[in-house]
Amino acid sequence: SRESKGVEQLPGVRWYALNIEEEHPVFPTISEPLHGLIYAPGSINLKPFRMLKPEDFERDWNVNVLGAVRTFQQYYPSMQAAGRASALLFSTVAVQTGMPFHASIAAAKGALEGLMRSLAAEWAPNIRVNCIAPSLTDTPLASRLLSSEDKIRSAQERHPLKMIGKPEHFVPLAMHLLHPDNWITGQVIHIDGGMSSIRI
User: Fold this and answer.
1) Residue 162 in contact with residue 156, Cβ under 8 Å?
2) 138-160 pLDDT, tens digit each
3) How far from 157 is each of 103, 148, 152, CA to CA, in Å?
């Protein structure tokens, strides 16, 4: 995503924008050991299945799965050089909880969760890999889905906590998962207002 939302102001964090859809994306040069890496592409492609074209599935796959593959392959040597490192991906609540109009993105993010677990196993014990699975979050990317008070209220009501996510809900967990001194790897952690696990 091109929206940093203040990420670059977090201590010890550097944020880079990258068009991963280019045939030869220009990855930022990181020469020093890399202790933490977050791959967080931005895309929302919600359509009825009958309106989805193979190109929609290909784009979501390329952005989410192949984009993560290319990014992790690019920076794996730098993470290895750190001795202990952590990588973080973002999935969606729609993988665990079936939702209408999410076929393309849920398929891609489901594959991403499988990739995360495979890499967590392969890279243990020195590189940990985890995934955060959010529900709808109030970001510029979601502005079309939250463009009126009625849409906001409707989105809030779908969540057990009767609110939608905010970027600041994710920062403490993301920073914890990147910290070298924790005991978490191979996990999909849901921050979704209870959407994936409870009904009220």
Assistant:
1) yes
2) 988 888 889 999 999 999 999 99
3) 22, 14, 9
